[in-house]
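Morning. Coffee machine broken again, so started the prediction first thing and wrote up yesterday's gels while waiting. Chain of 106 residues, entered below exactly as on the submission form.
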Amino acid sequence: MTVTLKRAVLIAFVTGTLVPFLMEATWNRLDAMGIHPGIWWSNAAICAWPTGIVLMETSPNWQGYVAFAISVIINGMLYGVIVLFIGYLISTFRPGKDQTQGWWPS
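Came back before lunch.
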């Protein structure tokens, strides 16, 4: 099965939109159990969900939910752009690749 650029970006977008939901669910579950993971969880959250920083000053009303939705969409787009950039770098620096075959590595 060959992975096309469109499929790779779509997979990255879906992954980027699922990560905030999983991190939020994990955070709520840890909080319900009374476990406070500390700074390591914050560092992991910033690395995997960089657009989640906008949620620090929101309240749990409709504005907070809109900010969460925007953060999820932007995070998915960010993951897609990163995969697009990696694909471009691979195709640019891959020796012996004929550019007429497309630029996503097969």
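Residues 5-93 form one domain. Going to sketch it on the whiteboard this afternoon.
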